[in-house]
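Our platform keeps sequence and structure together, in a single record for each protein. Such a record has a labelled line for the sequence and another for the backbone structure tokens. This encoding replaces a full spatial description with a residue-level series of whole-number codes. Below, we set out a record of this kind in full and without editing:
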Amino acid sequence: MKKQCLINNPALLHAQVHGALYMGMGESIWEEVRFDAKGKIQNPTLGEYRLPTALDMPRVHSSLVPSYEPAGPWGVKEVGEGATLPTMGCFRNAIFDAMGVSVNSLPLTPKKVWAALREKRKANGEDVWDPMAYECFLE
């Protein structure tokens, strides 16, 4: 019979997974430190730095998978940051799957996606509509 790790606090475990997922979402599509030509941070306060809020987040359901980690104390694994890293790749791959373009720098802003779509159309010899000429796409 395999050993299994005891989950002492399932609610806390779910909260850690959800928090890491939300952190990865923020890093993927919102958060960006901007610098001027002299290296000074242009958005040094939370008033200027875009962070996701609870209103930005989708409803999430996480599931527990019983397991045992022989190298960990008492057979436990980490749950805090594990969902952060793959989230960024998931967003990038979703853009590629949906639109056929790669955006390889964070955050994955609408402006970067439009630029990649324009480059793809140019490469295919198609007409290029410039959405950046419209103010609503500049935000």
